[in-house]
Amino acid sequence: MISGGGRMDISGTRAIYRLGHDLGEVRASIRQDFAFEVGGTKLEGRDGDTLNLPRWVCRILEEDGFVSADHEDMVTELKQALSKEKMVDAYELSKLDPDFYIRLEATMGTLEGRDLEKVEDLLVQLFRKRRGKIVKLADSADPAPDARSSMSVEERTFYGVIHDTALEFERQMGVSKK
């Protein structure tokens, strides 16, 4: 999406995918007995049990000490993504899930200090490598047909903006065949 002034705005797309992520389930270990009823829906857990809960519910219960969530290992996934990205050529992208950066952002919110700095460094490396490739793909005459399917939702928006801008530039300069 482009907002006024030709600027890219991915916040709406990210908000939708973040909502989908928060509605997904996560496995949680119960640390303290609880029983709640909200809007006619009962939720209860006994110390020592495990439950699958929507992420947003789990986050609230975890903050209050009722549960401990089994968080996915996004740090390892980030390392693997960077390694794969380094192995493919300049006009090819390794596959990222559409919500990769959203899930990574959620994990980074749980990290502190040196651990957070290391993950931020890996993220910057992956981001810069992929951004350069996306620019090349979006400006190429014949981009790989499956390139967009390998991108996150944010990257797809970025790709679209660059591709459309490049085509419009060609048209305005009179070099476009369209």
Short characterization:
This protein has 178 residues and is an alpha+beta fold.
Strand content: 15-25%
Unreliable spans are: 1-5
N→C terminal distance? 23 Å
Strand neighbour order, sheet with most strands: 6-3-7
Quote the CATH topology of the largest domain: Methane Monooxygenase Hydroxylase, Chain G, domain 1
Number of structural units classed as domains: 2
What is the name of the CATH architecture of the largest domain?
Answer: Up-down Bundle
Largest sheet: 3 strands, antiparallel
Following the backbone from N to C, one meets helices and strands in this order, namely EEHEEEEHEHHHH
CATH class of the largest domain equals Mainly Alpha
Q: Looking at the structure, what is the overall shape?
A: elongated
State the helicity in percent bands: 40-55%
Class from helix and strand fractions: alpha+beta
Draw up the topology in text:
Elements: E1 2-3, E2 7-8, H1 11-23, E3 25-30, E4 34-38, E5 41-45, E6 50-54, H2 55-63, E7 67-69, H3 74-87, H4 100-108, H5 113-139, H6 153-173
Antiparallel strand pairs: 1-2, 3-6, 3-7, 4-5
Keywords:
7 strands, alpha+beta, 52% helix, two-stranded antiparallel sheet, 178 residues, 6 helices, Methane Monooxygenase Hydroxylase, Chain G, domain 1, disordered N terminus, 2 domains, 3-stranded antiparallel sheet, Ribosomal Protein L9, domain 1
